[in-house]
């Protein structure tokens, strides 16, 4: 049996429509579902990201810790993000084996950018 692969992440957000538009515009993700409450679901073709509309009568706070994108080249992505009005991604310090850059979306959620991926050093893509 092959190991399970991460294919879905979820955030509770204040403005699901705006967040879906951001990820579609900045990372080429595609909207594939909208719930009656306004929650949006986008995908990159492998992983899907649920952007769950926060409810005023709910008790769930917005956010999540972070997630990551593997990219071919960080500088053009960093330029697009800065043009979109979010801070330019910052080089992460320390001896991290992956996730070279930390970035932030319009609502303050962290995400990482990596040119070589998120597998431990020496691990091959399966």
TrEMBL record:
Pfam (any one): Glyoxalase
Top-level taxon: Bacteria
Upper classification of the organism: Bacteria, Bacillati, Actinomycetota, Actinomycetes, Pseudonocardiales
Domain VOC: 5-116
Protein's name according to its UniProt entry: VOC family protein
InterPro entries found in the cross-reference section: Glyas_Bleomycin-R_OHBP_Dase, Glyas_Fos-R_dOase_dom, VOC_core
SUPFAM superfamilies recorded: Glyoxalase/Bleomycin resistance protein/Dihydroxybiphenyl dioxygenase
């Amino acid at each position: 049996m092959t190991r399970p692969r991460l294919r879905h992440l979820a955030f509770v957000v204040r403005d699901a429509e705006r967040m879906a538009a951001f990820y579609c515009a900045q990372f080429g993700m595609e909207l594939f579902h909208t719930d009656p409450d306004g929650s949006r679901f986008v995908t990159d073709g492998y992983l899907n990201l649920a952007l769950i509309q926060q409810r005023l009568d709910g008790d769930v706070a917005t956010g999540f810790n972070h997630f990551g994108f593997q990219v071919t080249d960080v500088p053009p992505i960093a330029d697009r993000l800065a043009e979109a009005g979010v801070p330019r991604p910052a080089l992460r310090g320390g001896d991290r084996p992956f996730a070279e850059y930390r970035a932030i979306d319009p609502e303050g959620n962290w995400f990482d950018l990596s040119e070589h991926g998120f597998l431990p050093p020496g691990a091959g893509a399966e």
